[in-house]
Write a structure and sequence with these properties.
- The chain is mainly beta and about 200 residues long.
- The protein has one domain: Lipocalin (Beta Barrel).
- Helix content is about 10%, strand content about 60%.
- It is built from one helix and twelve strands, in the order αββββββββββββ.
- Strands 1, 2, 3, 4, 5, 6, 7, 8, 9, 10, 11 and 12 form a twelve-stranded antiparallel beta sheet that branches.
- Strand 8 and strand 9 form a beta hairpin.
- The longest helix has 17 residues.
- The N terminus is likely disordered.
C-alpha cells in the first residue's frame, strides 16, 4: 500500500513539472498543506501570497478545526489582479492522515481535498483540488519549536461558471514552523500549473 502511494506521488510530481495551464489550490493561491496540522484543536490566521503572473497579490484569513487525525478549514479573502477589479476568494478544505512513517517509508502522508470559488471580473472559477502531502516533523532540541518540510502534489479540476473545464497539476513545496506554544508560521510555493509563493502566520491552540 505504501509503495503504491509512493508511486502515485512520483507520477503526480512528474505531471506537475510538465503541466502548462493555470490552476491553483481551492481559492487560486499557492498555499499548500503539510501532512499534519500544527495545532491541537483549532487555529486562525492570515496568509499573504504572490500567485504569479497576472495577479499582484492575495490576502486571506482562515480558520481550522481538528479532531483526531482529521481537520477542516475555511478561508476567505481577495486577490488583486494586474488588470481588472479585485476578485473574491472563498474556500474550504479537509485533511486526513493516510500514511505513518516506518522503517520502509520514512515520511508521513495525508490526503487533502478542497473546494473553492474565485469570483470577479471575467469568468468565475470553481476549484476542486485533491492532493497527497508527504513530509516529516523535526523538533529543535531544547525548545518547543518544530519544523515540517513537505511536498504536496495536487490534482486540480477547474470549472468555469460560464462553461468549460480543465484539470491542472501542481507541486507544492513548503515548511511549517511551530514557534512555541501559541504561534505557527508557514511558507510554501508552487511549481507546474501553480507558480508563486505564500506565507502565513497563525495563532494555534
Amino acid at each position: 500500500m505504501r509503495r503504491s502511494l509512493f508511486g502515485g506521488l512520483l507520477v503526480a510530481t512528474v505531471l506537475a513539472w510538465s503541466a502548462t495551464e493555470s490552476a491553483a489550490q481551492e481559492t487560486g493561491t499557492p498555499m499548500f498543506k503539510a501532512p499534519y496540522r500544527a495545532f491541537t484543536s483549532h487555529e486562525f490566521g492570515a496568509a499573504f501570497s504572490d500567485p504569479g503572473e497576472g495577479v499582484g497579490f492575495a490576502l486571506e484569513g482562515f480558520y481550522s478545526y481538528g479532531r483526531g487525525s482529521n481537520d477542516f478549514g475555511l478561508r476567505a479573502g481577495f486577490a488583486d489582479p494586474d488588470e481588472g477589479d479585485t476578485r473574491l476568494l472563498l474556500g474550504g478544505d479537509f485533511r486526513t492522515r493516510v500514511i505513518n512513517y516506518s522503517e520502509s517509508f520514512p515520511l508521513d502522508g495525508a490526503l487533502t481535498v478542497g473546494a473553492g470559488l474565485n469570483i470577479g471580473d471575467g469568468d468565475d472559477l470553481i476549484y476542486l483540488p485533491v492532493g497527497l502531502s508527504v513530509g516529516r516533523r523535526f523538533e529543535l532540541e531544547g525548545s518547543k519549536t518544530t519544523f515540517t518540510p513537505y511536498a504536496h502534489p495536487t490534482l486540480i479540476p477547474v470549472i468555469g461558471a460560464q462553461g468549460g473545464s480543465d484539470v491542472g497539476f501542481a507541486l507544492g513545496l513548503g515548511v511549517d514552523m511551530r514557534l512555541g506554544q501559541d504561534w505557527s508560521a508557514r511558507v510554501s510555493g508552487g511549481l507546474g500549473d501553480l507558480e508563486g509563493v505564500g506565507i502565513a502566520l497563525t495563532y494555534v491552540r
